[in-house]
Amino acid sequence: MIHLLNTLNYTLFLYYVACNLIYLVALIVAIKASVAHQRQLEGHRLHWINDSPMAPPITLIAPAHNEELSIRVAIRNLMNLDYPELEIIVVNDGSVDRTLDALKDEFDLYPIRVVRIQEVPSAVVRATYKSRQDPRLWVIDKEAGGSKADAVNAGLNSATSPYVCIVDSDSILERDALLRIMIPVMADPKRVVGVGGIIRVLNGSVIEKGRLQRVRLPRKGIEMIQVVEYLRAFLIGREAWAQGNMMMIISGAFGLFRTDLVRAVGGYRARAIGEDLDLVTRLHRYLLDKGADYQIGFLPDPVCWTEVPSDLRSLGRQRARWQKGLLDTLLSNHDMLFRPRYGRIGFLALPYLWLFELFAPVIEIGGIGTILLAVATGVLNHHFFLQFMILGYAFATMISIGSVLQEEITYKRYNQWQDVVRLVSVCFFEHFPYRQLHMIWRLQGLWQFLRGDMTWKPLNRQGLDSAKVT
Amino acid sequence: MASAFDMMRRYGPATFLTKAIIAAIIADVLLLAFIFLRRAYRNRHFVKRDARLMEFRSKWDALLSGQLPYESWRANPFDRRIVEEIALDAFEVAGSDESARLLRFLRASGLIEKRIFEARKHRGWRRHRALVALGRTRAPEGIPALSEGLRDSKVETRNAALRGLGRMGSTEAAEEILTWIAEVGLVVPALPLQNALINCCRERPQILLPYLRHAADPVREVLGRALGEVASPLLGLDLLELVDDRQPEIRAAAARALANTQPGHALEALIELTRDVVWYVRLRAVVALGKLHRPEALPHFVKALTDSNRLVRMRAAEALIDQGADMIPIFRSVVATKDRYGLHGYLAALENAGLRASLEAKLKETNTLPKDEVELLLQVLHSASLPDMPEGPTSVEVAALGSHL
Q1: Long-range residue pairs from B238-245, CB within 8 A, at least 24 positions apart, any chain
Q2: Helix, coil or strand: residue A166
Q3: Whole-angstrom distance between the N-terminal and C-terminal Cα of chain B?
Q4: Side-chain half-sphere of A155: how many Cα atoms within 13 Å?
């Protein structure tokens, strides 16, 4: 027993050291990359893209399922975006609320007949509408397909542009987001096949006529913790992985892809739980199978603001779903692991996801149990235990503050002093008990997947009213 | 109470952890201090910069004319950056007189000299910044320095030089780029190169032609696409030789370019290209043909409605609507093709243009067609499906469409 506890403790210690070293390296790489990106931007003017006749057209696809509360503001926001060649396709995915009526009222829609070629599978389309106010806006009304993936696929079938940008219909894009996300595409359209932007927390900010007018931190602690989480995930995690061309996820709330490639891989997998991770993984697989020289990138300055859950129950459901999605994708692509053909994706990115993302809740919750047991049985010295905890706390705080630093030295969206003070203070308080709760939710997700519980549990939404809409 | 050092000694094997804790706490404190100090510094910096910016703007005319001595701001990098930024931004929107005035100022103040020096001496991002800024000055004396940048071993530097030359927007800059790609081939991504060439060749698109004739394949495609964007009526006859090019990219570019030339030259060539084997050549030809607004093109749009490619069908339908011709004969011809995809494409374009009701009304009013045919056409319009029709002179109808209108 004592031998077992000792072995477990050593294993956990090594896991912990490896995990933190990865975070530290990621932080350093991300800061370096962000500074380089800022310098690169100095030589650009966004209006050059806007004025260029070679700017490739983009189709924005916004799937909407019961988004009555936010759809008007969100679509108005899309129509206000700066980009020379834009097509906006809103897919009403069998909403049972007044989403379609809201769209009809707001944008003066009229039905049209179009020929549709089902290049990727999706549920039956009931009707297609076009806006009299803005000819760029199309609305596809389809039967519920049971997933966001199905709705996006319906949009993909109708898209006519060489690039598609998938956005959530409860999110707000910054006005220049498309111009910014196209910078790497315009620089090297052959290699760059997908680009992800950053997702930030909208709750607490002020929106006016579909545009974000003032950025403020949310009031609730649970929302503020998510602000730091998002900063950490995007400004450190994705920024660092993208430097090695190992981006495994482009957020479903805001990502740009080459249309032909998304169609070539069969669009989104309708039964995928984490459809965004699944799509990027399949794109990697497809391109590596073909031996293509390609890049899937991340940019930290095209910003999408999205509403995050503001109650524990919804947050728990969301995180459990993400974990289920992760397991689902990793299992369906397990044959990519350690295969030379898949290079760094098979040898680095996927093993990282397995070990430090998928198993993290199991190891962390299990680790807490064994450590407490070891302390109780005297196998582990009390002082050592205390030190270990303090180190864990100080290090995790450092990484969180690092993400705030990234925000500060580069993109600085929170201009008020008091917002920064609150943001920094969250870095000290998020580790207990939120972190443990988070691990339990993720563990629940794994358990639900193993039980075969794939139901999509709705989250409580305040619509874009979580921000002040005027 | 034991001191921290006593505790460290007592912990023995845990000293590593203690050191790690101290390091992590110091890192936390340093990061926090950096965040807050930097924020305070930047607040001050922006207040100062805004004040200086306002001051320079208020004295802008004096500054441009040299009444405010250049030495008063040039030696200070903070002031120099502000003045240069104001001048370069003004350049982006200036007319010819104002551009000349700004250029005189940039020369007289030494800002261009400084940028040329930086573009040659610096490395890395400083050089990239200098190259782009030099391009934004549009000063021809900057071209040699930009040209050196094009021949750099690093692709980022080549890209920056290319962007700079693109911002120049002059024929000299275009020649520099064209000479360079003739020497080295395609060593930068195609799109930035196209953008730069488009910006630089607008005034004299004909300079692209000799390079296009002699360039190797990937470069030819880029040059062809640039030509497609900037072609002017003057190029008419020169473009015709590209219609038979072996590369589809060039044929597509020729089609695009022909839309900007005299219809007399373009019509036959474009009609020929609507029958090309490559779909995007046919697409470009249909779009270009639509821009000519010639009735002779109508039968070819109807034919293109039956194309195997969806985009070609869509554009052909849109072109048919855009021509503004009498809708009834066109609709008859579309129905006569007996192509369901073509019919749907045409009806979709009709509905998108809000003309469906208008066609229906015209069909009801017309007295030039037999009643049963009108009934049939109305039925097709309502149901969007083709009934079983007797074989008629469909190909003749289609061919004769242009001459009827």
Answers
A1: B238/B206, B238/B209, B239/B265, B239/B269, B240/B265, B240/B269, B242/B212, B243/B269, B243/B272, B243/B273
A2: strand
A3: 105
A4: 32
Structure tokens at B220: 């030819």
Across the range B106-128, mean pLDDT stands at: 94
Q: Over the stretch B179-222, which tens digit does the pLDDT of each residue have?
A: 999 999 988 888 889 999 999 998 899 899 999 888 888 899 89
Among A14, A31, A47, A54, which would you mutate to test the B interface (most chain B Cβ atoms within 10 Å of its Cβ)? A54
Structure tokens at B101: 């005035």
Query: Tell me, what's the pLDDT at B389?
Result: 52
pLDDT for residue A99: 94
A265, A119 contact by CB (below 8 A): no
| Cα separation, B112 vs A176, whole angstroms | 31
Q: Kindly write down the DSSP assignment for every residue of A176-222, as one continuous string.
A: THHHHHTHHHHH-TTTEEEEEEEEEE-TT-EEETTEEEE----SSHH
- Residue A457 zone, left/alpha/beta (φ > 0; ψ -120 to 50; rest): beta
Instruction: Report the b/e string of A88-124 with b at 16+ CB within 10 A.
Output: bbbbbbbbeeebbebbbeebebeebebbeeebbbbbe
Q: Does B33 touch chain A (CB under 8 A)?
A: no
- Residue range(s) of every CATH 3.90.550.10 domain in chain A: 28-321
Q: Which position has the token pair 């004319």? A: B65
Q: Answer whether A112's CB lies under 8 Å from A92's CB.
A: no
- Distance to chain A for B151, nearest Cα, Å: 18
Provide the pairing of β-strand A171-173 with A254-258.
unpaired
SS (H, E, C) B100-120: HHHHHHHHHHCHHHHHHHHHH
> Which residues does chain B have within 8 Å of residue A135's beta carbon, measured at their own beta carbons?
352
Two tokens, residue A274: 């984490």
Whole-prediction pTM: 0.83
Residue of B nearest to A402 (CA): B31
Query: What count of other Cβ atoms lies within 10 Å of the Cβ of residue B95?
Result: 8
Q: Between A45, A54, A409, which is nearest B195 by CB?
A: A54
Q: How many CA atoms lie within 13 A of B204 on its CB side?
A: 10
Query: Topology of A28-321 in CATH?
Result: Spore Coat Polysaccharide Biosynthesis Protein SpsA; Chain A (3.90.550)
B39 touches chain A (CB under 8 A): yes
Closest by CA to A289, choosing from A351, A340, A327, is A340
**Interface contact B31-A405, CB threshold 8 A:** yes
Q: Distance between CA A283 and CA A286 in Å, rounded?
A: 5
For residues B269, B275, B279, B280, the Cα torsion angle rounded to the nearest 10 degrees is 10
What are the backbone dihedrals phi and psi of residue A251, each rounded to the nearest 5 degrees, phi first?
-55, 140
